[in-house]
Amino acid sequence: MNGHVKSMYFQRFMETATTLLSLLLVMAFDSSRTVAASRNQQCGDSVQKSLKLSRLLQKESVDLIKTYKASQGEMSELFCKVSVNNVPDPNISGLEPSEKIASIYTHLQEFFPHFGWVYEQQTDLQLPTSPLLSDLRRFTAGSRNLAYLIKPFYQSLFPNVPLPEGGPTTLPPPQNVFQQKVYGCVVLKTFKELLSNVSRELRSLKSQVCRRRTHTNTLF
């Protein structure tokens, strides 16, 4: 085989190799876009589930507060207007998405001991058949489910950043009956404010985090 023929074979080989490489690059790019789109869909679905539940709980909190007031007797309209110490802050903190999601999770966790304390107090003040007690149990369970949804959402976005669990919650000292009624109403009202803030932040995070993640995955 002379040099000219060898050169022709080599040229054809290089053309074929170049074609195959181009095809593989296109397939890899399409695959990365497909994976990114799938992850974006999962991200969006996760936020949407959390957002839907937070809105549902927000509506339920309105009814729960009405039921609470109706079961407390006289002066119940004033109970939620009194200032109470040791109730968690309903405001979400942080600038970065990771900080905001972590703040949502820790704030939810901070309220659960207060829900338990309110329930214990109300079991002493209400009849066992009171609808308030069953409503409190159901609402607490739904709120815990919201925290359970937030946790894997955070871990899927920031797998290398531990999720803070929050510090110990300070419960109020022994209270008289009036103080117990005021405390329970303020806890429920403040948690309602937290749910409103959570819904607002989740709407913002859905457009920020999921879209940005798709753009980053497509680039790399």
TrEMBL record:
Any one cellular-component term (Gene Ontology): cytoplasm
Nucleotidyltransferase found in the keyword field: no
Signal peptide: 1-37
GO biological process, one term: nervous system development
UniProt xrefs under SUPFAM superfamilies: 4-helical cytokines
UniProt subcellular location: Cytoplasm
InterPro entries: 4_helix_cytokine-like_core, Ciliary_neurotrophic_fac_CNTF
Gene Ontology terms, MF aspect: ciliary neurotrophic factor receptor binding; growth factor activity
Top-rank taxon: Eukaryota
This protein's UniProt keywords: Cytoplasm, Developmental protein, Differentiation, Growth factor, Neurogenesis, Signal
Main location: cytoplasm
Record Gene3D superfamilies: 1.20.1250.10
Stated family: Belongs to the CNTF family.
Functional note: CNTF is a survival factor for various neuronal cell types. Seems to prevent the degeneration of motor axons after axotomy.
Name of this protein: Ciliary neurotrophic factor
Source species: Pogonophryne albipinna
Biological classification of the source: Eukaryota, Metazoa, Chordata, Craniata, Vertebrata
